Amino acid sequence: MKRNYTQGRDFEYKVRDYLRSKDWIVRRAYASKGMFDLIAYKDGLKWGIQAKSLTSNNNRKYLTPKENKELCEYAISPTVDYEFIEWKQSHRCPVMQILKDEFTVIHAYNKFPGIGWRINKKGEWKDLNNV
């Protein structure tokens, strides 16, 4: 059985690779200590994505209460200077960046046989189809 970190990282890669196959530019947060695991850009859209894959998820849309609160608060009133830590191969270490963009809050979750998507608009979650 995979450790939680490895399982979560693998799911983040699955989400990243899926979006890249749809021509999104995607960057993954290193160690995922912030609000978003991935940030994605396409055609003027800017998504901040929280990806969740847990063995106990059983295809449920799962976020911890703390994560849900942070994401809903951000969706209602985005903060300006968001910190994002990613691995920079050229530096061979994690690098923190200050992002000035506002992101649409997206929740990606494991859903057999693929990925389920939700969007947060003004603090409320709605299913998102056709990603």
List keywords for this structure.
alpha+beta; six-stranded mixed β-sheet; 8 strands; Trna Endonuclease, Chain: A, domain 1; 2 helices; 131 residues; 39% strand
Give the helices and strands, then pairings.
Elements: H1 4-21, E1 25-28, E2 38-42, E3 45-52, H2 65-76, E4 82-88, E5 93-99, E6 104-111, E7 114-121, E8 124-127
Parallel strand pairs: 3-6
Antiparallel strand pairs: 1-2, 2-3, 4-5, 6-7, 7-8
What would you say this structure looks like, in words?
The protein is an alpha+beta fold and 131 residues long. It has one domain: Trna Endonuclease, Chain: A, domain 1, CATH 3.40.1350. The chain is 23% helix and 39% strand. The chain has two helices and eight strands, in the order αβββαβββββ. A six-stranded mixed β-sheet has the order 1-2-3-6-7-8, with helices on both faces. The radius of gyration is 14 Å and the shape is globular. The protein starts with a helix and ends with a strand.
Task: Tell me the helix content.
Answer: 10-25%
Q: Let me know the largest β-sheet.
A: 6 strands, mixed
Q: What count of helical segments does DSSP give?
A: 2
| Strands side by side in the biggest sheet | 1-2-3-6-7-8
Number of strands: 8
How many angstroms does the end-to-end distance come to?
30 Å
What do the pLDDT scores average to? 82
Query: Can you identify the CATH class?
Result: Alpha Beta
Question: How many domain regions?
Answer: 1
Molecular shape: globular
The structural class is alpha+beta
Indicate the radius of gyration in whole angstroms.
14 Å
Instruction: List SSEs in N-to-C order.
Output: HEEEHEEEEE
Task: From the 3D structure, determine the CATH topology.
Answer: Trna Endonuclease, Chain: A, domain 1
